[in-house]
Amino acid sequence: MARDLPKYTVPSLTPEDGAKVAEILQGRLNALNDLALTLKHIHWNVVGPHFIAVHEMLDPQVDAVRLMVDAIAERIATLGVAPVGTPGALVKARTWDDYSIGRASTTEHLGALDEVYVGVITDHREAAAATEELDTVTNDLLVGHLHELELFHWFVRAHLESSGGALSTDGESTEEGAAQAAASAARTAP
């Protein structure tokens, strides 16, 4: 998204660099807003065995992701650019499909959520790498978020892993494929 250069930015960055960092962060703002909504959607629509464990595991993740959203939006503003957090702008700018699983089992949702986290974390790492030389403060913010995102991903994967270490979603690259693989593995587990 091409934007006008900010009138000011943080000391030691040029307006061009401030705008570039803000653009990278806007992508992360969109992704994390989407993640918070997706986590809440799963929280409301998960059913079956382990319902309460998964239902209650997700709310702290929602809260933490919302804090990440706020920190990123405030960093964008600090860089002299207006953060855009409207639903229409998010939908227009996103490069991924909407979460497609409705009311479903805990295993199906966790399988799909595994893929969601893979996408968010991969893109967050790319953003961290892109800001490493450009702006150490933004880079530090993104790296801190990665710590929490990867921890939450581990929480999800622990539900999908066999005692032998096999991940039921291994080899899947779509939410629906991962949901089906996780459900199939759960049906055949001893």
What does this structure look like?
- The protein has helices spanning 15-45, 51-78, 87-93, 106-131, 136-160, 175-188, and strands at 46-47, 104-105.
- Helices cover 69% and strands 2% of the residues.
- It contains six helices and two strands.
- By secondary structure, the protein is mostly helical.
- It has a two-stranded parallel ribbon with strand order 1-2.
- Helix 1 crosses helix 3 and helix 2 runs antiparallel to helix 5 (136-160).
- It is elongated.
- Keywords: DNA-binding.
- It holds the Pfam family Ferritin.
- Residues 165-190 are annotated as: Disordered.
Structure in a nutshell:
The chain is mainly α and 190 residues long. The chain has helices at residues 15-45, 51-78, 87-93, 106-131, 136-160, 175-188; strands at 46-47, 104-105.
Would you spell out the secondary-structure blueprint of this structure?
Elements: H1 15-45, E1 46-47, H2 51-78, H3 87-93, E2 104-105, H4 106-131, H5 136-160, H6 175-188
Parallel strand pairs: 1-2
Helix pairs in contact: 1-2, 1-3, 1-4, 2-5, 4-5, 4-6
User: Approximately what portion of the residues adopt beta-strand conformation?
Assistant: under 5%
Give the rounded overall mean pLDDT: 95
Find the count of extended strands (DSSP E, 2+ residues). Answer: 2
Q: Could you spell the SSE succession in H and E letters?
A: HEHHEHHH
Largest sheet: 2 strands, parallel
Radius of gyration: 18 Å
Please report the first level of CATH classification, the CATH class. Answer: Mainly Alpha
Approximate shape: elongated
- Output the CATH homologous superfamily: Ferritin, core subunit, four-helix bundle
Find the structural class using helix and strand composition. mainly alpha
Order of strands across the main sheet = 1-2
Distance between the termini: 51 Å
Overall number of structural domains: 1
Unreliably modeled segments: none
Region (Disordered): 165-190
InterPro entries: DPS_DNA-bd, DPS_DNA-bd_CS, Ferritin-like, Ferritin-like_SF, Ferritin_DPS_dom
Protein name: Starvation-inducible DNA-binding protein
Domain Ferritin/DPS: 23-161
